[in-house]
Amino acid sequence: MANSRCLFILIFCLGHLCQHGDAARIEKLANRKLCADKDCSYAISMARALEDYTASDCRYINLKRGQMIYVYSKLKPVEGAGVFWSGSVYSDRYVDQMGIIGYFPSNYVNETHIFQKDTVEIPTTEMDFYCA
After folding, report:
1. Taking the CA atoms of the chain, what radius of gyration do you get in angstroms?
2. Segment 56-100, tens digit of pLDDT
3. What is the domain partition of the chain in residue ranges?
4. CA-CA-CA-CA torsion sign (39, 41, 45, 49)
5. Looking at domain 2-131, does it have CATH number 3.30.70.660?
C-alpha cells in the first residue's frame, strides 16, 4: 500500500514537471500595465468584441464578434507598439473559452461598462507573457 502511494506521488510530481518543461518564455509586450488592484484580480471593465480575432499564440485569446470580455489589465505600450488588453471571454455560446485569460488588441473591442475608474499602474513580469 505504501509503495503504491509513493509511486502515485512520484508520477504526479513528474507530470507537473513535464508540463512546465514545455513552457516557453516569449518577449514582453510591455513593461507596465494598468489594473483595478495591485494583484490584477478584479475586472476593470466589460467590453464587446467588434469583430473576430484569431489568437496568434498562447498569450492571446480568440474573440468572436459580439462576445463579451472581462478586462483585467491594460498594457501600457512601449512607443510604437500595439495596445493590448488582457481579459477573459464571457458568453453562453462560447462556454469552452470561459475562464481563459489572454491578451487581445484593444481596437477589436468596445468598452461597454467600466467597473473601476481609478486604476493602479504596476510593472509587468516575465510571467505575464509566459506561454505554456
Report:
1. 18
2. 888 899 999 999 999 999 999 877 667 899 999 876 655 555 577
3. 2-131
4. positive
5. no
